Amino acid sequence: MSKTRQPSIGDAINREHALEFSYADYHDPGLDYLCLFRSTGLTLKAYFIDDGSKGDILIPHNHRYSFDSRIIAGSLVETQYVESLTKPCFLVADQVMKYRYDCIADGGAGYDEATEVWLMKTSTSRYTRYAAGVDGAYNNYAHKNIHTLSEIDPGTIILLTQYADEGSRYSYGYGHKFPECVYRKMSPRDVEIRIEQLHEAMKAKL
Questions:
Q1: pLDDT given at position 3
Q2: Of 7, 127, 169, 173, which is the most buried if we count CB atoms within 10 A?
Q3: Looking at per-residue confidence, does 132 or 171 come out higher?
């Protein structure tokens, strides 16, 4: 009696989508984005951080969609925040600039609509591919959750399932304008290298 073959990550990869929508230095320098499948209601993608954390690889931000993610390789520290329009009386908070972000890769204009807000840390946690005894455990996020990632190990890979858009993305930081990252579309060779790296990481976790 033959065994039913378990689906692999290769079953989810749409090569046309990978070639059209995969970028290097996506949102932030050092963060590569491999698109596995893309639609209005569901997108599968992987993020690669080869060099690890540089201290500010990801500024605090929310997402325009809710998503599930898990760590396939490496580890990182996640910090979550809440926003306030007024200075909290009894909590430590930083006054920052809040920018609405329209993704340039999707035809948007980048950062705009800057306002001053107060940002407070609510939790800090380290996640690895073996967090909580579950291989690759991470979290499910609502689109309004504000977080950032730091202390990222070299070679970290995050696999993410993105659901339909629910709102706008905002980023938070000091100063009055963020430098725009120059997105670089991956070459076909870069895409194949990333797919192979993802295959190897998925095999290593079994």
A1: 38
A2: 127
A3: 171
* Strand ranges for 129-168 from DSSP E: 139-141, 146-150, 156-165
**pLDDT over 50 (residue 6):** no
Q: Is 197 helix (H, G, I), strand (E, B) or coil?
A: helix
Task: Please provide residue 15's backbone torsions phi and psi, each rounded to the nearest 5 degrees.
Answer: -60, -35
Return the structure tokens found at 112.
């705009």
Q: For the chain, what is the mean pLDDT?
A: 82
User: Rounded to an integer, what distance in angstroms lies between the CA atom of residue 83 and that of residue 117?
Assistant: 7
CB 20 within 8 A of CB 13: no
Distance of CA 106 to the CA centre of its chain: 16
CA distance linking residue 90 with residue 169, whole number of Å? 28
CA 194 from chain center: how many Å? 16
Q: Which residues pair with 76 in a beta bridge?
A: 127
Range of lowest pLDDT (82-91, 97-106, 120-129, 183-192): 97-106
4 has a pLDDT exceeding 50? no
Q: What whole-number distance in Å separates Cα of residue 80 and Cα of residue 66? A: 15
Tokens of 11: 């079953």
Query: What would the pLDDT profile of 117-169 be if each residue is shown by its tens digit?
Result: 999 999 998 888 754 444 445 577 888 899 988 888 999 999 999 999 999 88
Whether 150 and 55 have beta carbons less than 8 Å apart is answered as: yes
* Alpha carbon distance 163, 87 (integer Å): 33
Q: Which residues is 158 bridged to in the sheet?
A: 47, 71
